[in-house]
Amino acid sequence: MNEREMLLRRLSSAQFAAWEMHIFLDTHPDDQQAIASYQKYHEKAQALIKEFEEKYGPITSSASAFGEKRWEWINNPWPWENEKETKN
Q1: Model confidence at 88, in pLDDT bands (50, 70, 90)?
Q2: The whole model's pTM is what?
Q3: Phi-psi bin for 71: left (phi > 0), alpha (psi -120 to 50), beta?
């Protein structure tokens, strides 16, 4: 697994944990430990998104919609154009 894939997995894990805490807080809105956990995972996910985008470009189309690199995300190869992806 290369560095890009590792970073995406870390991001996915942080986003998943933040979402799980979000769901938990729907039924336990006053749980201070859960609020702190949610904030921790949310901030970690935001930091990982920033790190990914600095290294590899926008992770979503909306990330590049308004900026110098408008629509840059479209220039990356699609999964079916990536030789490595088609071998799996």
Answers
A1: low
A2: 0.69
A3: left
Closest CA to 56 of 13, 12, 2: 2
Say what the alpha-carbon torsion angle 18, 20, 23, 29 is, to the nearest 10 degrees: -60
pLDDT tens figures, 47-71: 999 999 899 888 876 655 555 555 5
The string of DSSP codes covering 11-80 is HHHHHHHHHHHHHHHHH-TT-HHHHHHHHHHHHHHHHHHHHHHHHH--SSGGGGSSSTTTTGGGGSPPGG
| Whole-number pLDDT of residue 57 | 83
Residues, the chain: 88
The H or E element spanning position 2 is none
Question: Where are the domains positioned within the chain?
Answer: 3-85
Cα separation, 25 vs 27, in Å, equals: 5
